[in-house]
């Protein structure tokens, strides 16, 4: 008796996933609870495990987009780890049925016919299956054959060999094109960004922050801070703390619209934009308003490591009342960040550059960072947006206020 394994529910807002990788192969024997495949949603990667022991029969192929509840594979009863013996150990009597099975399998396929996975890849590459030599049973085109095939090979085969004398005009540089299917994460990000631009009255206000006081404070205490707390003292903890204080004074910046109501939050769950191998992810620091600088730094490091390793959970990326993004780590001088819906505002940090500024009537050189606040004008007025950003600036330029709460 076989058991069909389907795509499990992985979150309320997720309706489909992509089969990113088979860990086990078709025909492999698998143990109960053994990881057999990886599924990728728009937010994270999940492991699919075997629900019973038996022989794996794949249904979906790598790269397929599957709805929640769609069949992925089945597990047939029978088989054992010992069944995977080397061919040299098989007796002639044991090999005969296998050979007959292979012959029967070969007879079910037309010579050169591609497998479903191979056909999909060849179609994406624009390669005619007739131009590819199959290496599978009965000359069938396998997935590997399709991956090794290229449009260039097709074009080369279509050029008559008798025309070497007619040389094409030389074009400097490469003019190749390549196509890649968008990942679930990239597709979802694209949809949400367009949705935000179309459904919110987004506006951005700017200011600049003199980072010298914070830089001097870090230089003075960073060694003692790391010795005591085990983490470095970075800029993100100062910005997170300053944002939490400013949100208390301007609660609309920490609110969201639901239907015809405005939902205000008396807590600050700060989303931190982190660049991960598969794209931008936004893990959340819960109740950041109640954390110390050391606690914020520890949480940021923990979430960043999980993002890098692809270990963030849905819960860690769900929610958030306000977002901070740091384009400065990539060298950005100025940007207009897009709101992380359903939130109503996002703060953009940028790189720190020494610039001439006027201080007490004198021109001096100071490390300056431009900051940007994008906000939804439907809920946040200009007075509140500018006031919020000015308050963040004041707290950062006088970090003692962050510690004293004034």
Key features of this structure:
19 strands; 3 domains; alpha+beta; seven-stranded mixed beta sheet; 406 residues; OB fold (Dihydrolipoamide Acetyltransferase, E2P); elongated; four-stranded antiparallel beta sheet; 24% strand; 32% helix; Dihydrolipoamide Transferase; Chloramphenicol Acetyltransferase
Q: Look at the structure and name the CATH superfamily of the largest domain.
A: Chloramphenicol acetyltransferase-like domain
Helix percentage: 25-40%
Number of helices: 11
Work out the number of β strands. Answer: 19
* CATH topology type of the largest domain: Chloramphenicol Acetyltransferase
Could you walk me through the main structural features you see in this protein, from its secondary elements to its overall organization?
With 406 residues, this protein is of the alpha+beta class. Helix content is 32%, strand content 24%. The chain has helices at residues 92-107, 116-125, 143-148, 151-158, 184-199, 212-229, 235-249, 293-309, 314-317, 382-397, 400-404, and strands spanning 3-6, 16-22, 29-30, 35-40, 45-49, 54-58, 65-67, 71-76, 202-210, 256-258, 261-263, 270-272, 274-276, 279-281, 284-285, 322-326, 345-349, 352-359, 362-376. The strands form five sheets. Strands 9, 12, 15, 16, 17, 18 and 19 form a seven-stranded mixed sheet that branches. Strands 1-8-6-3 form a four-stranded antiparallel sheet, with no helix packed on it. Strands 5-4-2-7 form a four-stranded antiparallel sheet, with no helix packed on it. α7 (235-249) packs across α8 (293-309) and α7 (235-249) crosses α10 (382-397). The chain is elongated and about 85 Å long.
């Amino acid at each position: 008796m076989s058991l069909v394994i389907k795509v499990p529910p992985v979150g309320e807002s997720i309706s489909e996933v992509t089969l990113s990788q088979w860990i086990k192969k078709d025909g492999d024997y698998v143990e109960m609870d053994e990881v057999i495949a990886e599924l990728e949603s728009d937010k994270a990667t999940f492991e699919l495990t075997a629900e019973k022991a038996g022989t794996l029969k794949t249904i979906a192929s790598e790269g397929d987009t599957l709805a929640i509840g769609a069949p992925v594979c089945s597990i047939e009863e029978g088989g054992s780890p010992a069944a995977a013996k080397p061919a040299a150990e098989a007796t002639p009597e044991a090999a005969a049925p296998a050979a007959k099975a292979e012959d029967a399998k070969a007879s079910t396929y037309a010579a050169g016919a591609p497998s479903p996975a191979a056909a999909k890849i060849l179609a994406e590459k624009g390669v005619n299956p007739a131009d590819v030599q199959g290496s599978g049973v009965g000359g069938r085109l396998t997935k590997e054959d399709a991956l090794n095939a290229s449009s260039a090979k097709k074009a080369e085969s279509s050029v008559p060999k008798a025309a070497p004398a007619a040389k094409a005009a030389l074009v400097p540089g490469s003019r190749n094109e390549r196509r890649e299917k968008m990942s679930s994460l990239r597709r979802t990000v694209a949809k949400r960004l367009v949705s935000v631009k179309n459904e919110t009255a987004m506006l951005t206000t700017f200011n600049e922050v003199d980072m010298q006081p914070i830089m001097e404070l870090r230089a003075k205490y960073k060694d003692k801070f790391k010795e005591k707390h085990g983490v470095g003292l970075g800029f993100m903890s100062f910005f997170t703390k300053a944002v939490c204080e400013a949100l208390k004074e301007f609660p609309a910046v920490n609110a969201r619209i639901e239907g015809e109501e405005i939902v205000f939050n008396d807590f600050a769950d700060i989303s931190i934009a982190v660049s991960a191998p598969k794209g931008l992810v936004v893990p959340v620091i819960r109740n950041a308003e109640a954390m110390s600088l050391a606690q914020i730094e520890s949480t940021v490091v923990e979430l960043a490591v999980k993002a890098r390793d692809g270990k963030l959970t849905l819960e860690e990326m769900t929610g958030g009342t306000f977002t901070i993004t740091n384009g400065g780590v990539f060298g950005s001088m100025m940007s207009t960040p897009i709101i992380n819906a359903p939130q109503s505002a996002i703060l953009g940090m940028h790189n720190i550059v020494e610039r001439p500024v006027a201080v007490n009537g004198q021109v001096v050189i100071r490390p300056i960072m431009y900051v940007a606040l994008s906000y939804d004008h439907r809920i946040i007025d200009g007075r509140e947006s500018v006031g919020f950003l000015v308050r963040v600036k004041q707290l950062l330029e006088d970090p003692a206020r962050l510690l004293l709460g004034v």
